[in-house]
Specification:
The protein is an alpha/beta fold. The protein is built from nine helices and ten strands. The protein has a single domain, classed as Alpha-Beta Barrel (TIM Barrel), CATH 3.20.20.150. Helix 1 runs parallel beside helix 2, helix 3 runs parallel beside helix 4 and helix 5 packs parallel to helix 7.
Length: about 270
């Protein structure tokens, strides 16, 4: 398993020191998230620090909401996502991750139009705008599904990828995002089906967990919730998925325990 860490990259961080810490834990790659954006200078510093620390950059975040393109709930408007795509060669990475989005007032809020032709057409229009940029740098836009978004269930992800039929589109495999709390009792049934359905479109795997806190959904790091990891890893094995796997939703202090948990679960197969 190619195991990496999802890491926020502050613009003024000492990247050499930060990446040395990540490598010392035992990770070999990163999914970089830029809460303050990324320019050419930061991209250059990041690639140099990766090389010095022996890390590879598996993916970068461009988390926009294509249905509300001028908002930046996780640091990127649609225009900023486009700018980041153009920086990918400088970052020496091909994978960039975004949401498929929601018309809801909050990024993860549901909205009835998300699940109609209106939402579908809005997402398609945004991707049409980005496709020439992806083609120019041969980058892959990976949508991270979420159950309230336009691409909320595996069948819709497959339909979307099939309609575009492009090597520059794919999906992040992230089961907690696709499993509303009411379905958790059915993980043994749903996870193998979801993984098999998405398998040929998967470009990245996210590893986290899911639990309820005071009745509200919480998505902590691996091993801190109710995700059926044995079933998930068995499904990955059965589907032959070998995309990079990224541990997320942990601090650097929590990362060693999360990594140990994931490796223990994987080795138990």
């Amino acid at each position: 398993m190619q195991l990496g860490l999802w890491l926020e990259i502050p613009a003024r961080a000492d990247l050499g020191r930060l990446f040395d810490q990540v490598a010392a834990i035992g990770f070999s790659s990163l999914h970089a998230h830029f809460p303050e954006g990324c320019d050419f200078a930061l991209a250059r510093r990041l690639t140099r620090a990766c090389a010095s620390s022996g890390l590879t950059l598996a993916a970068v975040s461009g988390y926009a909401n294509p249905l509300r393109p001028d908002e930046a709930p996780m640091g990127s408007t649609l225009a900023q996502l486009a700018d980041l795509i153009e920086l990918l060669p400088r970052l020496n990475v091909r994978r960039i991750v975004s949401w498929s989005g929601s018309f809801g007032s909050g990024l993860f809020d549901d909205h009835p139009d998300n699940h109609t032709q209106i939402g579908w057409d809005a997402l398609c229009a945004s991707v049409d705008e980005l496709m020439p940029l992806l083609d120019a740098v041969e980058a892959v836009l990976l949508f991270e599904p979420y159950y309230t978004h336009v691409l909320g269930v595996p069948s819709e992800v497959v339909r979307f990828c099939t309609e575009f039929n492009s090597p520059y589109l794919g999906v992040v495999l992230d089961p907690p995002n696709m499993l509303p709390p009411g379905t958790w009792a059915r993980q043994a049934e749903m996870i193998p089906d979801d993984v098999a359905t998405l398998a040929r479109h998967v470009g990245l795997i996210h590893l986290k967990d899911m639990r309820l806190r005071d009745g509200k959904l919480d998505l902590p790091g691996p091993g801190q919730g109710e995700l059926d990891y044995p079933t998930f890893f068995a499904a990955l094995e059965a589907a032959g998925i070998s995309a990079p796997a990224i541990i997320e939703h942990v601090t650097l202090e929590e990362a060693p325990a999360a990594r140990a948990f994931v490796l223990t679960q994987h080795h138990a197969l």
